[in-house]
Design a protein that fits this description.
It is a single chain. This protein has 105 residues and is α+β, with helices and mostly antiparallel strands. Helix content is 30%, strand content 39%. It is built from 2 helices and 6 strands, in the order E-E-E-E-E-H-E-H. Strands 1-2-3-6-4-5 form a 6-stranded mixed sheet. The longest helix is centred in the C-terminal third of the chain and has 16 residues.
């Protein structure tokens, strides 16, 4: 598991090998949840499920695409990060920390 950020802005990413494929679970903030699911296959458009009222798929898509490109395998990324009544600046900080996780894939 890798982490980025501190306090309520801390996010984490866990990787699991499933045969030749990869599963990434993203969490953090004040409450981890499942807000979206992204499935990537090499040389295909990602498939995205966004749960109503959530935007976690935005960072999950980047994570799934980066891992799919790097490892040339199928990737599923799921999870979510929640901060109650988050401001725009707080959301940007969480997204920035998620981008840091992506660099470590």
């Amino acid at each position: 598991m890798i982490t980025s950020g501190e306090g309520k802005f801390k996010v984490w990413l866990e990787e699991k090998k499933i045969g030749d494929d990869l599963l990434y679970v993203l969490g953090g903030g004040e409450r981890t949840h499942i807000g979206g699911i992204v499935f990537c296959e090499p040389n295909k458009e990602p498939r995205i499920i966004r749960l109503p009222g959530h935007y976690d798929d935005v960072v999950l898509k980047s994570i799934a695409e980066a891992a799919c490109k790097k490892y040339g395998t199928r990737v599923v990324a799921t999870g979510g990060v929640h901060i109650e009544n988050a401001t725009k600046d707080e959301i940007e900080k969480i997204v920035e920390n998620c981008r840091e996780l992506e660099k470590c894939i």
